Amino acid sequence: MTGQRIAILDASYSLFGSNSSSTSSPSSELFSLLPIPDFKTLVIDAIKSVRIKDEHTKVAYIDAGVVCDSSFVSGVARALHERVLKKLRDR
Fold first, then answer.
1. Structural domains counted in the chain
2. How would you list the strands of the sheet with 5-9, edge to edge?
3. If we measure between CA atoms, which residue out of 21, 43, 39, 18 comes closest to residue 30?
4. How far apart are alpha carbons 11 and 35 in whole angstroms?
5. Nearby residues of 23 by Cβ (< 8 Å), 6 or more positions away
6. pTM to 2 decimals?
7. What span, in angstroms and rounded, lies between the C-alpha atoms of 47 and 52?
8. Could you give the CA distance from residue 76 to residue 82 in angstroms, rounded to a whole number?
9. Which helix (H) or strand (E) is 61 found in, with range?
10. b vs e for 22-55, b when ≥16 Cβ sit within 10 Å of the residue's Cβ?
11. What pLDDT shows up at residue 15?
């Protein structure tokens, strides 16, 4: 990415336009990653928490994750990781 931007994505989504985890056959699930539950909500919540600490944070939600300046990646990644971990533990 240009301009020192970093993307943090749910790896179950394809960057090439086809989401293989959306197919319904059981055998396809054996060879694909399952989406993180409520990932969109977790990303938006993480972005809000980082912006509360620094309103100048340059970060944007995308369908499969978040894009941010490299200077903010540590805070965004930490906030998102905490939320994903909690979500997966609560399942």
1. 1
2. 5-9, 65-69, 59-62
3. 21
4. 8
5. 32
6. 0.75
7. 9
8. 10
9. strand 59-62
10. eeeeeeeeeebeebbeebeebbeebbebbbeeee
11. 74
Three-class DSSP category at 30: helix
Phi first, then psi, for residue 84 (nearest 5°) are -65, -45
Q: How far is CA 75 from CA 16, 68, 80, in A?
A: 28, 10, 9
pLDDT in tens, 17-38: 665 444 444 555 556 888 999 9
Q: Which residue is associated with the tokens 């906030």?
A: 79
Owning domain of residue 43: 5-89
Residue 68: name the closest of 40, 47, 52 by CA.
47
Are 69 and 58 within 8 A, CB to CB? yes
Q: Centre a 10 Å sphere on the Cβ of residue 67 and count the other Cβ atoms it contains.
A: 17
